[in-house]
From TrEMBL:
InterPro entries: Bact_Sigma-Reg (IPR052016), CheY-like_superfamily (IPR011006), PPM-type-like_dom_sf (IPR036457), PPM-type_phosphatase-like_dom (IPR001932), Sig_transdc_resp-reg_receiver (IPR001789). It comes from the Bacteria. GO terms for molecular function: phosphatase activity. Signal peptide: none annotated. This is Sigma-B regulation protein RsbU (Phosphoserine phosphatase). Pfam families: Response_reg, SpoIIE. The keyword ATP-binding does not apply. The modification 4-aspartylphosphate is found at residue 69. Residues 20-136 form the Response regulatory domain. CDD domains: REC_OmpR. Transmembrane segments: none annotated.
Length: 419
């Protein structure tokens, strides 16, 4: 094997990606000829006379580029290439086979065992340099990809640490949000109110509650803030502070007369106040729907405002269901919006359900929504079940309709049963 030297001389600035070139040939003279050219181009060169010795070098040192003869005693070039590819390595090694063979079948065999390039003897210096330059480009791309993967892995590790910290905070936030619903049920004489709150994530935008409203009345509310997640949950916390207290100083739905007695404000005035508050004082892009109701515990009379929230459902003592209300605008969208109150009356044994749209808009596996008719059927099915047990049965039915527990929206509700 000879290197033709009648071509212009190359000058090579050593590149960090090709630190070591391994020459493998059973002819010492042929190795010497190639080595002179490679060292002139700036490469560090190690040479050996057999493939077996070359494999030992590859196990001990990070060889970047190999130039190997095809025909050698013992293990030949293709066999060496196959063994080299089987070695565990952190980076790619570029492999050039030197051969006097030019048959297509032999070239295909060389590619099959993992060779990257072929040079036909006698070796032309320009062609050898071009093949090495091609190898450098491949190694450079492989190095860049490896660096990007390393940076990606490092970034993913940092993100995982941050995610774990956020996840811990969200677990605590979920506990805090659930604490906004301090009581899941309470009896008021012969009547009972029960609550359901199930966020679809760690925290959600739904809120339910009740409060004594003076004059033998009970306030009920069901709220659904737009969006999901932390920002929606923060809005629900703010609303809980405005509605959940039994103090007139802290609850917008209550007022105190000159004698110090607590009275319920008309629901439409309360919702109009909330609308002004959101648009004028709270800097948020969120809006919310609400169903606010005042129930007279002695007579079963209900006065309510439906502001974009699903229709309240009254289930009579005989199990039949009817929906109330006329829809209305959400809160926090239109300045000066007015809200109309509706009325209804419960007889002993009747109950009213204020449910979020996470129930009526729950999709089935075929993407069909449960809808008001579906909720009506579930209420009829569970007509004999009372209190918190009703919500347990209803939630199980909704999960069954959805085909699994991973529901796409928050689920919440208020159930008032008139005794």
């Amino acid at each position: 094997m000879n290197v033709e030297t009648d071509q212009p001389e190359f000058r090579h600035e050593p590149h960090a990606l090709v630190r070591l070139v391994l020459l493998v040939d059973d002819s010492r003279l042929q190795r010497r000829i190639l080595r002179v050219s490679l060292e002139r181009w700036g490469y560090e060169v190690v040479e050996c006379g057999s493939a077996e010795e070359a494999l030992e070098i590859c196990r001990d040192r990070p060889v970047d580029l190999i130039i190997s003869d095809w025909m050698m005693p013992g293990m030949n070039g293709p066999e060496f290439c196959r063994a080299f590819r089987a070695l565990p390595r952190d980076s790619y090694g570029y492999f050039i086979l030197l051969t006097s063979k030019s048959e297509t079948g032999e070239m295909v065999h060389g590619l099959d065992v993992g060779a990257d390039e072929f040079l036909t003897k006698p070796v032309n210096a320009n062609e050898l340099r071009a093949r090495i330059a091609s190898g450098e480009r491949i190694l450079r791309m492989e190095y860049q990809l490896r660096e990007q993967n390393r940076l990606l892995s490092s970034t993913l590790g940092e993100l995982r640490t941050l995610y774990d910290a956020i996840d811990r905070d969200l677990v605590e936030a979920r506990k805090l949000q659930q604490s906004l619903v301090r009581e899941r049920s309470r009896r008021f004489g012969a009547s009972e109110v029960s609550l359901l709150l199930r966020p679809c994530g760690h925290v959600g935008g739904d809120l339910v509650g009740f409060f004594p409203a003076g004059d033998g009345k009970l306030g009920l509310f069901s709220v659904d803030v737009s969006g999901h997640g932390i920002s929606s949950a923060m809005v629900t916390a703010r609303l809980a502070g405005l509605l959940a207290s039994s103090s007139a100083e802290q609850n917008l739905a209550l007022e105190e007369d000159s004698d110090g007695r607590i009275h319920a404000r008309p629901p439409e005035e309360v919702v109009e106040h909330l609308n002004r508050l959101f648009l004028e004082e709270l800097e948020t892009e969120h809006y919310f729907t609400i169903l606010l109701a005042m129930v007279t515990l002695e007579t079963g009379e209900i006065s309510f405002v439906q502001a974009g929230h699903p229709y309240p459902a009254i289930q009579r003592a005989d199990g039949s269901v009817e929906y109330l209300g006329g829809g209305g605008l959400p809160v926090g969208l239109i300045p000066g919006a007015s809200f109309e109150a509706g009325t209804a009356r419960l007889a002993p044994g009747d109950r009213v359900l204020l449910a979020s749209d996470g129930i009526t808009e729950c999709p089935s596996p075929t993407d069909e929504q449960l809808g008001e008719d579906g909720l009506c059927q579930l209420m009829v099915k569970n007509a004999a079940i009372r209190g918190e047990a009703f919500f347990e049965a209803l939630l199980a039915d909704v999960i069954g309709f959805a085909g699994g527990p991973d529901l796409p929206d928050d689920i919440s509700g208020v159930l008032f049963e008139f005794g």
